[in-house]
Design brief:
It is built from four helices and six strands. By secondary structure, the protein is of the alpha+beta class. The chain has a six-stranded antiparallel β-sheet with strand order 1-2-3-4-6-5.
């Protein structure tokens, strides 16, 4: 996957369509690489119970479904920052939005914030011989994730 570049052309193209398509609004920045288009929107707190966030709205350029965790981690790292934590929400049924093959990550804009769930330490393995001992499979890492 190549590095992202900001696309002012795409921002201009989407500017008048965002309300119709349910896309992030006119303040979004659009970043594109060879595989993905990402709308990046900074969200300010709306009340006392929220914190500043970065909303990443991600789609593949060929509009096929995604689920390559490493790609999503690289997108989060490049466009929001390696030190921030983000989450993909699987909402209650009455809040479900599924209108296209587009995926969303909400990133907390606080480098010290950690979710009260998940692993506490880093462990990244790209040695297939190691993980095959426990019946798993892993591919080689192309870049730091």
């Amino acid at each position: 996957m190549t590095k992202f570049k900001r696309s002012f052309e795409a921002e201009e193209r989407y500017q008048n369509k965002s309300d119709l398509l349910g896309l992030p609004d006119k303040e979004s920045k659009i970043w594109i690489n060879d595989a993905y288009t990402v709308f990046v929107r900074e969200l300010e707190p709306s009340n006392d119970s929220t914190t500043p966030m970065i909303w990443l709205s991600i789609k593949r350029n060929d509009q096929a479904p995604i689920f390559d965790w490493r790609d999503l981690q690289q997108i989060k790292n490049e466009l929001a920052g390696k030190d921030y934590e983000g989450v993909q929400l699987f909402p209650a049924h009455d809040r479900t939005v599924d209108s296209s093959n587009q995926y969303h990550i909400w990133v907390i804009k606080d480098k010290h914030f950690r979710f009260p769930f998940g692993f506490s330490e880093r462990m990244v393995i790209d040695n297939n011989a190691f993980v095959s001992n426990v019946g798993a499979k892993q591919r080689k890492i192309e870049h730091d994730i």
